[in-house]
């Protein structure tokens, strides 16, 4: 149902500011609907715009039923939904339902000792040794209650107790409220963490995640959520962010026979440049491991007719062109090759704002330029010299994916705001504006537009059965897709060095090339970061 859809993720704070306060807003999205329509996307995923203290950029919800004035009003959202539909674009909302802000009225009532609302969360006399995903302990002490509360993320993000029927009813009420507003997509933040264990115990082997990841009732809860909310509607696209999920559970979430979710995000393939699987310990990406993870998930999901999200970029990740490509010498070539390699696989395509113009990492030099709470915590907890810690932040900070969009070639802040931006634009010399991209018919933008057109119209691309080849090759990512006796070969050179590949040329036709190749020989020479899709 959804395999030909393309979702465009917007980080509202960094998209376009229309009132000069340095923060992007909903009216900025409305203003750029023509641009998004030109690109050809089907749905806009907005990261949270609910009322929030913004400690974690909106992933700490204070009020699920109202729009944060930082971004606009309910009227602005309603106008966005209506005007986007005029462009044949739907809206996806980001639902943060594993935890609330400690400023939420439920938690504030819990702090008074109101047992009803204390049961909405996890209060314990004795904390476990679990670690927060943002660093430090996952428990904070409340002096007045003489109890600790659980927060798997920041101390201002208290975990909700989904085992409490009252909490589940509140969750369903929230989801249905926004569906009634006309939302057609739902992205559920870290949703595979919502089922906690019956007994909380110390973890002497890890940081505690093995006890709550893909928890004991998670599939039951997602099925119940489905049948009580979006499952009763027509054509609602759902995607779950699955933190550290297993392959087995990940495929179950998206198995259409189980009525849980339409698709999922998993992040195993985005840890291949983590040394010893530690985010802030940076290494060159492991190409063989990247291919193995992608192929394992593709084949396992295909076997169950499940769909996985096809992506390398989002608001929590460094920019893929800086991470896996070469923004200095082969900016266009590496950005387009990476996009082709990922987007032509089996699943639902997710494009993150700026990706379509090859936006590179932030390349900040000063610590005070970083704004992300996780990055600042990491700097304070990491061992090593200032230079070593700054290298870790420049490589893996979430701020790399949050720098504002550069709309114009000239002008202060590249047209993002008339004020002071909440976060600096990328300092990279490789930055290219939207204006420049639209003027150049050979830009990364127009290659993305072509990829989206293929996803919409080519049955082999959006329905084909995938198989992987040459998984041990040190620089080529190769796969085929076949549908109704038509077969495509996908060749992707992930490195600068040229490499040859033998193909059957009889009847061969080039479907896509980032080097504008017109024909192929039986021994294809792939240039630096070349991508080639051939009908064979």
Q: In terms of per-residue confidence, which ranges show pLDDT below 50 for 5 or more consecutive residues?
A: none
The fraction of residues in strands falls at: 15-25%
What is the overall shape? globular
Strands, count: 22
Sheet with the most strands: spatial strand order: 1-2-5-11-12-13-14-15
Helix share of residues? 25-40%
What's the main sheet like? Answer: 8 strands, parallel, barrel
Total of DSSP H or I helical runs spanning 4+ residues: 17
Rg is 23 Å
Helix and strand composition category:
alpha/beta
Average pLDDT across residues? 97
N-to-C span: 27 Å
Key attributes of the depicted protein:
alpha/beta, eight-stranded parallel beta barrel, single chain
